[in-house]
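Review box. Two proteins, two foldings.
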Amino acid sequence: MLFSHGFGCDQNMWRFVAPAFEADHHVILFDHVGAGRSDASAYNTAKYSRLEGYARDVVQIGRELGLKDAIFVGHSVSAMIGILAAAEAPELFKSLVLVSPSPSYIDDGDYIGGFSRPQIDELLESLDSNHLGWSMTMAPVIMGNGDRPELSGELSNSFCRTDPRIAREFAKATFLSDYRHALGGVSVPSLILQCSEDVIAPVSVGEYMHARMPRSSLVIMKATGHCPNLSAPEETIAAMKDFL
């Protein structure tokens, strides 16, 4: 099982989930370039201006480790990175677990991504002008679970540890992306884990993906917020084990 973290996070965000699968699987954790303990000198603006750059890294990891029929587990933007990686190297993965995924964050006609384009532009401008302020403001919104401030505090601290330039460019690659066209090409069984209340990826997004991914299963969790791997690990683990 290959676990891939979301924007502004690192592999530590899987610490409540990944150990539950170690008895039956070889668990692999990694940090995207620019996150956690990765080698930031490997960051290249041209490569990572689109999610395909991150997907190529996932494929490289899989091939270097000789993976075959692996289970890819991706949170948030890494869900789409996993879809792109599986399209490029289908021999590597036998299934996908997509935690709080979104193929596009911007509303478009009947598609409800959760944000208007002006809202996304404002979000990116705020991040560009005040990285620390953005981190402290957005972390509680993304995490939800206002009655558990320690969760948003951890997320905020994670955002703040990220290199501001890399964070800005990763945010653009994330929030301006539109990979709706890629959904129909997913050929492996996929689990979509959707929180019941998530301002970043509303329920309508999970339903949209499920309707367009022929081999997908959709689970609407009781958990709220965008990071059930932190806020509701037991429910996340149970849903994953039911799928696997």
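Next protein.
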Amino acid sequence: MRIGIPKEAQSEEPRVPVVPQTVKKLVDLGAEVAVEAGMGTPSGFSDDEYGQAGASIVADRRELLSSADIVLRLNKPPSEEVSILKRGCIHVSFLDPFNSRALVEALAGQGVLTVSMEMIPRTTKAQKMDALSSQANLGGYVAVILAAERLDSIFPMMITPAGTLSPARVFVIGAGVAGLQAVATAKRLGARVEAFDTRPVVAEQVRSLGARFLEIDLGETGETADGYAKQLTEEQLEKQRLAMAKACAQSDVVITTAQVFGRKAPLIVTDEMVRDMKRGSVIVDMAVESGGNVAGSKPGEEVMAGGVRIMGLRNLPGRVPRHASHMYSSNLANFLEEFWDAETKTLALDPRDEIIRGCLLTRDGEICNERLKEVYAS
């Protein structure tokens, strides 16, 4: 099979879908790998490195896409490129499927087998393919590093002849993959860390990292079968906001990570809570691209609100593009290796497999993912 890897269409995207080490793995499987010229440049990988790994370098993007049996990307494809893909090819990337209905329907109409990396199930078997988690992990790290750089004081306690400096107080809202990494990173930098999540089951994970878990009685909560926090009622959200207002007011840094998969992120930090925070404190809204957890946060911007800096920067994993590319590339390689047929040298996507059933969106000219069909029908 011929695997085509085009350059990312978004000029501001510094990550790349596949690194040279992964190309070698794919070639060793028996695949023919073609890389668009300059594909790896944003993350510092040269065409020569891909060539040495066994890939052919193709300058003609249209030829690359039209001849590929498998297309590997990071972000979703431009709608105008869907018609270039050959019927029966397999397209693998992030797709934001719940908000990209027209694109998914176009891919189905083109006869493409579409794999959404967001829809990889959160199971033990699929953990090595879970690109959402690998990128969120890096995002949590970057959020803390950016907050430390913007804060007008230092993170660790420091005892000096001139006096003792108290440690910064960091409050992390949401203890999923991103939140736990934020907790761990802030602790390594010497901050005093507190965290909250609607799922009491993660309290022990927070404590194991040396942080305090904020207890709030919200009544019935929990997590979905995929490991995501369940959406709260408006009454629960208001109770949560009231309880967290004190923690935010005492904090130097607040990092919000709360997202509900496939839905708008909940508003957690209100205007009033921001007004009660100390001047010079910093908020990092990691959910800004899906609606935002913080009142006043703006996608791609840093704004000041009464002396509080609110950071709504996009694509936090993209700020460490080399490692982010390595991790996503590894997720792709693990996916292909798992379903590669060594005898036929093809990718076998069996719809009866639990992982494929979860992440395959289109097949035989139709949308085949039951969860997605339910969302589109609602």
